[in-house]
Every structure is written in C-alpha cells, then in structure tokens.
Structure to design on (304 residues):
C-alpha cells in the first residue's frame, strides 16, 4: 500500500489532509464526526489574545459556487484556549497546528510564546489576514509588515511557523518569498478572497460587516495558481487550500507543489469529506504506481 505520510517543516504527518482553521472546532467542541486521529493534523479556529465576539450577523452568505463569510475571528481568548481547547484537540490527534492572530507584533509574539511554552503544538500558524491596528493594513498584504511580524515571532519561538497568507495582493509569490526570508518554515496558501454580496430583498449588503471572504469551488483555480507560482519561488513547504472538495482537487494541489492540503468550506457541505479525500488519494497513488504521497509533490512542474 502507498505511504500517505508527508513531512512538513521537519514534522512527519500520517497523511496530508488537514482541516482549515475555523472548520473543525468552535469554542472547544470539535464539529466534525469521524476519527480525528486519522487526519494529518488538527487545526483550531484562530485564537486571539483577548476574548472577541466577532462581526455582527449575518456572517455567512451562500454564493453560486462557494460561500462568503464575515465571521470576524470570534475567540474565547488565549487563556481559555490553553486551559481547555488545546488539550482537548491534542487528545484527538498527535499533530496539532495552533492558529493565532494578533493586531500588533507584540500580540503575535506574546501569543506564540504562550503556545510554545505549553509544548502541545507541533506548528504555529500565523493568520496574517487580520489588520495591524496602527495602520489598518492586513499583515500579509504589505511586505514590510509581513516581514516584521514573521521575523518577530521567529526570533521569539522555535516551534515551526506556518505563514498563512492572503491572496488579495498583486503577486502572491513575492509575498511568499518575503515570508520565507523572514523565517517562516511553511506557507498556508491561500486564505479567502475578498468579496461582496447584495441582498436584493432589502437592497443592501448581505453581510453584517459588508464584505466577506470567498471560499469554495469558485476560488480553486486562483488558489491553485497561488500554490503553483509560489512553489517556483520558495523552498519551504506549502499547505494548499482553497476550494478543495474532492480527492481530485487535493491531488491537483499536491501536483502543483503543496505538501499538505487543508479542506475548508466543503466540511460544512459534507462533514465526512476529509476522510473520503484521504482514501481517494490512497487509491490514486496505488492505481498510478506511486510509492507514496511525497512522490507527487510538485510533479506537475517536472512534467511540463
């Protein structure tokens, strides 16, 4: 049987399938049915330093080929997460990615230090699609801010860092290179695309916060290109995400250069999809004569 394991930033995962942040866990309760120990790793809903309520409703709006969400990073706060949420997730899987978001470099550093000190996280994911409160600019859309926050956290902790980047930039591969140079050990590509929906019944924006992040099948070609172009630019591994709904989608991302893949919106459509995707990858590898998942990472580049 093919070996499904992959190595992400020096850490071995039993397979490349992960839940995207925000689609597995709400407060401290896993939402998905299934054996969570059989996924490559678990990822919490992004946690912030302080408790947050998030954005006003409505927070979710279905689109023709996906979903707009404007949840706004509601959080129980890092102290409550460390007491309950993180230990409960760790009990479900031997690999944990802790996703954090800060509104200043200091906040990011403090959060990372708190997580690292507990010794329960195999990776820290920096959710860089939140704004720097001083400028209002998203961390991952400004090269200077991006380098500052990744570098600051890198100097503070030794836990492998995944820089989760926003696609709402001119050149995602350039931002990937900035994150790599600043000390990121891996990349998360990509977060949601900014979008808008209008509710024609009430003749105003459908979401309570006006705009939201678009995810789902509609963004897959765009996310796939982000992985493809960044793989050509950087040497660190990539976690691909954006519109993955089937094992074929996951295979495409791996062929484009992703070491692992994160499933987001489709978990709400089909809660068992990650296990189906894992099994589909296994069948694909066997049917095509590959020894393991690592054999297809970036293969599409070599086959050009």
């Amino acid at each position: 049987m093919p070996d499904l394991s992959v190595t992400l930033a020096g850490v071995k995962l039993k397979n490349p399938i992960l839940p995207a942040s925000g689609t597995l866990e709400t407060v401290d309760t896993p939402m998905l049915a299934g054996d969570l120990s059989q996924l490559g790793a678990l990822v919490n809903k992004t946690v912030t330093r302080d408790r947050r309520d998030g954005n006003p409703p409505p927070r979710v709006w279905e689109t023709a080929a996906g979903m707009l969400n404007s949840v706004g990073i509601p959080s129980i706060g890092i102290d409550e997460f460390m007491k309950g949420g993180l230990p409960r997730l760790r009990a479900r899987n031997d690999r944990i990615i802790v996703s954090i978001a800060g509104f200043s470099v200091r906040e990011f550093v403090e959060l990372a230090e708190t997580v690292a000190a507990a010794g329960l996280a195999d990776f820290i994911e920096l959710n860089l699609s939140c704004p720097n409160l001083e400028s209002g600019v998203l961390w991952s859309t400004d090269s200077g801010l991006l380098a500052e926050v990744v570098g600051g956290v890198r100097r503070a902790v030794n836990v492998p860092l995944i820089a989760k980047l926003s696609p709402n930039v001119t050149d995602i591969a350039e931002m990937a290179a900035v994150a790599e140079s600043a000390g990121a050990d891996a990349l998360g590509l990509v977060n949601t695309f900014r979008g808008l929906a209008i509710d024609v019944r009430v003749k105003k924006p459908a979401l309570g916060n006006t705009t939201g992040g678009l995810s789902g099948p509609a963004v897959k070609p765009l996310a796939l290109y982000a992985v493809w172009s960044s793989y050509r630019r950087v040497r660190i591994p990539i976690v691909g995400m954006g519109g993955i709904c089937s094992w074929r989608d996951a295979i495409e991302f791996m062929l484009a250069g992703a070491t692992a893949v994160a499933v987001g919106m489709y978990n709400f459509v089909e809660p068992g999809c990650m296990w189906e995707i894992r099994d589909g990858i296994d069948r694909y590898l066997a049917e095509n004569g590959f020894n393991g998942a690592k054999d297809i990472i970036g293969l599409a580049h070599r086959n050009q």
Observations:
- The mean pLDDT is 95.
- The first strand starts at residue 6 and ends at 8.
